[in-house]
Amino acid sequence: MTDAEPLARIAAALERISPPPPPAADPMAHPAYVWREGVLVATRAFRPLALDLLTGIEAQKAQVLANSRRLADRLPAHDVLLWGARGTGKSSLVKSAVGALQAEGKPIALIEVAPDALSTLPHLFDLIAPLERAFALFVDDLGFEEGSAGPRTLRSLLEGGAEARPDNARLHVTANRRHIVSREHGEAERAVNARDVMDDKLALADRFGLSVGFHNVDQPTYVAMVEAYAAQLGLPFDAADAIAWATGRGARSGRVAWHYVVELAGREGKQV
């Protein structure tokens, strides 16, 4: 055994424990990326749903698409907070709006950013600020625990200072609650006026130029969602069966509608 062999084995073991970061992708070449460990990584497949398939959220679609179009055209555009009930199409709408604009030939891409990576965004801003392309920075299912530094970081990114996002990038954040921060009150909060606490939390949401609410889906809207999916995919449609599927899951939402359609496609032996 040569002296180099033990060193080679140690180096290989260390690489398995802590592999090197993935190679950086060309930020002008792909429709969507993931911001991972300080590196832009191209997504393996970006297949957003067609906007027409997102049923029951017409007003929300119009708002988000118009704002994304302005971003792609390098016109003034807002950071967007999409908040409300689970499974109502918040995340799908962000991706579908970007996909629709790309189909029109607009220079825009999506970058997914993990909620715990907000503090690394200034580095991403440095990478994309000089580019002739717009970027929708997608932060999905954001929520902060009490005492977290996250709200302060997000305020800085939205409002200003030296670390503010460049003109060709806007945040698109989804959350189940409009005020984003956990509802639980700690001892320190109980010592001050509850209204002041809530006003402080809402102040974070108010820093988004566009706040879009999503609400629980009623039965007619749910059935319309399933019918739209089935028509697009050439699947048989049975409203009673679709309702029974939702009843068995104790919920009606766009997500439940899509899960039912996947089940239906599987029964029919068709791809989705």
TrEMBL record:
It comes from Sphingomonas chungangi. One of its GO terms (molecular function) is ATP binding. PANTHER family: SLR0930 PROTEIN. InterPro entries: DUF815, P-loop_NTPase. Keywords: ATP-binding, Nucleotide-binding. SUPFAM superfamilies: P-loop containing nucleoside triphosphate hydrolases. This is ATP-binding protein.
